[in-house]
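Run log // design_07
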C-alpha cells in the first residue's frame, strides 16, 4: 500500500512536520480472542468460549489471514523491528505455529532485529508446557502473565476465567521452561478488595519471583458490566483513600523487594523494563496491526475498527485512514502525559528542541505550585513526578496543565 493511504485526508491547522518523527521500530499485534469477557474489560475482543483455541478455530484462522494481509499492505518505513508485542485478548489461545506465521510476515515485511524483544500476553489455564516451549521456539522471549488477583472470590467477581491454583500452575510451567524474562499483572481497587487482600497479592507475587510486575488501578469503563453494577465512589468499590493506600503499599512493598518503580504502574528488576511499552511512553512511533489496534506513524494516531467484520471491511476497502493529524498543542500535551509516567520524566532540552523554549518555560512555570507541594521534581535538565506522591496525584497535575492549554 502506498504511504499516502496512511496519511490523513484532512489536516489540522498546525501540524507537526513529518520529518520530526522518528521511524517506527516497534509493532503491536492485537489477538482479540478471549474465552469470556471479564466484567471490567472494554477492549476490542471476540469471545470464543472455553473450547476454542488456535488451529481448531475457523474464526481465529480467518482473523490471522486478514491480520497478515494488513501487515503485507502496510508501508515499510525502513527500520527493522526492535520490539514486537502480542497483546489481547488472549494471545495464548494461539498455537506457536500461528504466532510463527505472524512473525514470518513481520520479518518479510520489516525485518526483525536479532536482539528484538518479542513479548506476548498469556493467561493462566490457557497453555501447557509444550505450548509455552513452542512460543519460545518461534522467538517469543518475554511473557506477561495476566494474574490480576490471588483471591478466588475477587477473580470470580471480576469475571476472570482462571482461579488461584491456575496461576501457580502457570508459573510452574514458566519456571519449567526456564523463562528468564516474564511479568505478572495485578489489579488494585477491585470490588470487595481489602487492603489485606492487596497486601497478600503483592507478597504472593513477589514469592513467585517475576522479573517485572505491572500494578494497575481499576478503572470502571463505560459500557462494561462493572459500569452497570458499580458507580465510582460507591461500595463495594474501595474508596479513594483505600485505593491511594493500595498504591502506596504497592510502591513500598515492591521497591523493598528490589523492584525498580520505573513507570507509574510498572516495576522491574534491573535490566527487565518493558522495552516495547517504553516506546509508547517516550512518544516514539509504532505500527499497530489487528482489530482495534492503534498505530502512531508520522505524528498520526489511528485506531482500527473494533469489530472483526468492520476490520475486515476496512482492509477490503484499502485501509484508508482519515483521522486528522495531531496539532502541535495536542502532541505537546500528549508528550507531557506520557513521559511524566516515567520515573525519569522528561528532558527539558529535548522538550525545547521539539516544541520551543516558550512551551518548555510554560511547563516549568505551571508545575511550580506542585513542586512546592513536593509532588514534582524540577532540575535544570529534567522534569519528573516524585514517587509516590507525584505519581499518585498525576491526574490532578496533568488535568491542570490540560485545562490551561486547551
Ligand atoms: S482476558 Fe483480558 S482482554 Fe480478555 S476479557 Fe479479560 S481483561 Fe479483557
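design_07 sequence
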Amino acid at each position: 500500500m502506498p504511504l499516502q493511504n496512511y496519511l490523513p485526508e484532512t489536516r489540522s491547522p498546525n501540524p507537526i512536520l513529518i520529518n520530526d518523527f522518528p521511524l517506527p521500530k516497534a509493532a503491536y499485534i492485537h489477538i482479540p480472542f478471549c474465552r469470556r469477557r471479564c466484567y471490567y474489560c472494554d477492549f476490542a475482543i471476540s469471545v470464543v468460549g472455553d473450547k476454542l483455541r488456535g488451529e481448531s478455530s475457523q474464526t481465529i484462522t480467518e482473523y490471522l489471514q486478514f491480520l497478515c494481509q494488513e501487515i503485507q499492505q502496510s508501508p515499510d518505513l525502513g527500520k527493522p523491528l526492535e520490539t514486537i508485542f502480542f497483546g489481547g485478548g488472549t494471545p495464548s489461545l494461539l498455537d506457536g505455529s500461528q504466532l510463527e506465521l505472524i512473525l514470518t510476515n513481520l520479518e518479510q515485511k520489516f525485518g526483525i532485529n536479532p536482539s528484538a524483544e518479542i513479548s506476548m500476553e498469556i493467561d493462566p489455564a490457557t497453555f501447557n508446557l509444550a505450548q509455552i516451549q513452542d512460543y519460545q521456539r518461534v522467538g517469543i522471549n518475554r511473557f506477561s502473565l495476566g494474574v490480576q488477583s490471588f483471591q478466588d472470590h475477587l477473580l470470580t467477581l471480576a469475571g476472570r476465567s482462571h482461579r488461584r491454583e491456575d496461576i501457580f500452575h502457570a508459573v510452574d510451567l514458566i519456571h519449567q521452561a526456564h523463562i528468564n524474562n516474564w511479568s505478572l499483572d495485578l489489579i488494585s481497587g477491585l470490588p470487595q478488595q481489602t487492603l489485606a487482600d492487596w497486601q497478600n497479592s503483592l507478597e504472593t507475587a513477589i514469592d513467585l519471583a517475576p522479573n517485572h510486575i505491572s500494578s494497575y488501578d481499576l478503572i470502571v469503563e463505560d459500557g462494561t458490566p462493572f459500569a452497570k453494577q458499580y458507580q465510582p465512589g460507591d461500595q463495594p468499590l474501595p474508596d479513594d483513600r483505600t485505593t491511594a493506600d493500595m498504591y502506596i503499599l504497592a510502591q513500598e512493598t515492591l521497591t523493598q523487594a528490589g523492584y525498580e518503580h520505573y513507570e507509574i504502574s510498572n516495576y522491574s528488576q534491573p535490566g527487565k523494563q518493558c522495552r516495547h511499552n517504553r516506546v509508547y511512553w517516550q512518544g516514539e512511533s509504532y505500527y499497530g496491526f489487528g482489530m482495534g489496534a492503534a498505530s502512531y506513524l508520522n505524528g498520526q494516531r489511528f485506531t482500527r475498527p473494533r469489530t472483526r467484520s468492520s476490520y475486515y471491511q476496512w482492509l477490503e476497502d484499502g485501509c484508508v485512514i482519515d483521522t486528522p493529524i495531531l496539532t502541535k498543542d495536542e502532541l505537546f500535551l500528549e508528550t507531557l502525559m506520557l513521559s511524566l509516567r516515567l520515573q525519569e520524566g522528561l528532558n527539558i532540552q529535548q522538550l525545547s528542541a521539539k516544541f520551543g523554549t516558550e512551551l518548555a518555560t510554560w511547563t516549568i512555570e505551571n508545575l511550580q505550585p506542585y513542586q512546592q507541594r513536593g509532588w514534582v521534581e524540577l532540575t535544570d535538565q529534567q522534569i519528573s513526578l516524585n514517587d509516590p506522591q507525584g505519581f499518585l496525584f498525576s491526574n490532578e497535575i496533568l488535568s491542570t496543565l490540560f485545562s490551561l492549554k486547551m
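Residues 327-406 form a domain with the Arc Repressor Mutant, subunit A fold (CATH 1.10.10.920).
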